[in-house]
Amino acid sequence: MNQNGYPTLVELKNNKEKMIEKGEEMLKELTNIRILLEKLRKDEEENLDKITELEEKENYLATEILKLDLGIKILEVIEFIIENNIFRDYWKIIEEKIPYDELLEIVAENGLNVKKVCMELYKIANIDDKDILNKIQNLPDDECQKVSENTCMQINKYLDKIISRIIKLKELTNNST
Asked: Element (H or E) spanning 3, and its range?
């Protein structure tokens, strides 16, 4: 890490790799829980306490995986900006003016859109370089919007599953009384 709290490109990639590995482990655990839940619902549907406990764990893991996924995508945006040297020597000015945590927020607030993030950084750092501005304006913004839309679709699917599980639990509870 440099003196301004920014990780080096190598550290950024290592952090991303660790997050990916952690996400893969959590996905395996989530898959095992879902298999067990399916079996319990089929064979032991009267065991509501165990089903509820596993569903809560499933929801927790799914939420944590979504958080990791967002974190990975944020790091990918920063990695792209640094690797492509979009700001050249001005990156040092950005590091001095914007704390790293704030940079992470800027990436998230701009929907993981590299072009929007770069324009925001350009404004905040008060950079006045037409070459940098042209470089930013020539960045594609379609790809990042697709990533953001994909994330929203995943969250909506996840919420739909939670709602359907709650409805099933209510039905099971009503049928058992």
From this structure: none
Q: Are 73 and 112 in contact (CB under 8 A)?
A: yes
The DSSP result for 83-145, as a single string, is: HTTTTGGGHHHHHHHS-HHHHHHHHHHTTT-HHHHHHHHHHHTT---HHHHHHHHTS--HHHH
Measured in degrees and rounded to the nearest 5, phi and psi for residue 3 equal -65, -20
Report the distance separating Cα 96 and Cα 6, nearest Å. 10
Question: How does residue 144 score in pLDDT terms, banded at 50, 70 and 90?
Answer: very low
What's the pTM value of the predicted model, to 2 decimals?
A: 0.74
Q: Provide mean pLDDT across the span 119-130.
A: 95
Q: Is 35 exposed, middle or buried (0-12, 13-18, 19+ CB in 10 A)?
A: exposed
* In contact, 120 and 110? CB cutoff 8 Å: yes
